[in-house]
Structures are given as structure tokens and as C-alpha cells.
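[User]
Um, C-alpha cells okay?
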Amino acid sequence: MKDDNGDIVAGIKSAICWNWMEISILWVDDNYRSQGYGKRLLEEAEKVARAKKCTFIKLDTFSFQAPEFYKKYGYKVIATIEDAPLGSKHFYYKKDLSYE
């Protein structure tokens, strides 16, 4: 996503793997957080995943990043690694996709 000047302010990196989408990076510039950019990126990723007939999305994040953000949009923790990195947690999330 770009601002009015054409500068990149948010983005997502993902890949389709068999029947799922894997999100490896979701980033929003500090100055643009809490303005709906992350939500819009997740919604677009889910739209693409559904179009590709994915049955779920998998992603990971750290305790010092935004784990609560993902929970708010229906992602559930499926695994946690303690002390990765030291003093933090590494969370793996999954969201099953429905086809209404």
C-alpha cells in the first residue's frame, strides 16, 4: 500500500502452498498504524486465498509484535515456541476459511 506521495506504507508477503496461504510478513509503517491498513491487508489476503480455493491461512508473529491483532480477526494460536528469541514467544496462527 502506498500513500499519496507513492511511498510504501504497508505491505504483505504471502505464498500459496497446496491448499493454504502462508503469510510470512505483514508490515505497517509506525505512522500509519491503527488506521485500518493491517485489516485491509488481511482482508485482501483472505480474498485471494478464497479465490485460490485455500482452506486456511497460516502465519506467525512474535510476542513483541502484534499477536492480539491477529486474534481480533479470527486467527487462533496453534503453536507457541518459548524463548524464541530469548525472553519472547514465537506464535503460529491459523484461520480456517469459510465459503459462504
Remarks:
- Residues 56 and 83 are 27 Å apart (CA to CA).
- The radius of gyration is 14 Å.
- The chain has one domain: 10-96.
